[in-house]
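User: Please check token order:
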Amino acid sequence: MSAGNAVPVRTRRVASRIRQLRERSGLGAQEVSQALGISMSKISRMESGHRGLNADDVAAMLGLYRVPTAERAEVLELVRHGGDRNWWSVRPGDPESVVSAWGTIRNFEYEATSLSVYQTMFVPGLLQTPDYVAAVADAVASLNPSVDLDALLKQRVERQTLLLSSRQFEFLIEEAVLQRPVGGAEVMYHQLRRIAAVAARPNVNVQVLKVGVGAHAGIDGQFSHLEFADHADLVLCENIGSSSYVEEANIVADAAEVLRRLRKTALPTDESVELIRYTADQWYQHAAVGGSLETEQLDGSALEKE
């Protein structure tokens, strides 16, 4: 666990946001430096979250980048409360809110050196296939009827490229997730094949918690634990319409301990992957019987291509 520096999570979020807004404007850091009279080193520290943010400096940047009024107000509000620890983000009801929320999560994932996810209800986002994403989006469509599925899928694919990096990923998944027919048998078949294929990567560890283990350390609910090289670690919890980013040392330590216990409770990695493949085979049989899947051989080579 990294103690990191004392830059709060809100400031870290704004830091990545202003970098993205500069890039969106098409301006280079040197151009911003010359236009606003801010040194290149200061811009670099502001965009990397290695220093606090001054509202006047950020406002000048947002003006130069021609950021719309509503978005500018949102960013400046975060800056004004940048010294507050922890962050509870409530998604507004606009069509882009869900995609924007995933963008925030992706920024922290990109900065993390390792990510551990404990999931109880559905396949972790970094492992989801496009059809699985679409099925989940359809299930919650009544809550977010205006979500742009194409934009959500594009962002999900961009997030999943992180799996190809040197970052370490850990996914602890309840067995019920493998058994829940999200999108139907064929979708589940390909989804579980996808998980097994990703689990073969040297920087990815997947473990399954069997239903029969009963009560265990993670019974309070799902969460993600992110570790950083230069910042304090975070615990991310998601609920209906909101996300919380917790940086309190005792909470982060508790999350790390829950993960340690879950690793011991879950099936070992090799047995977990074997169970995932077996369950995928069962979904394959269901799909084949239902006539929705063409006959194909289930073998390791096919799995690696998934």
The two ends are 34 Å apart (CA to CA). Residues 269-289 form the longest helix (21 residues). The CA atoms of residues 196 and 273 lie 6 Å apart.
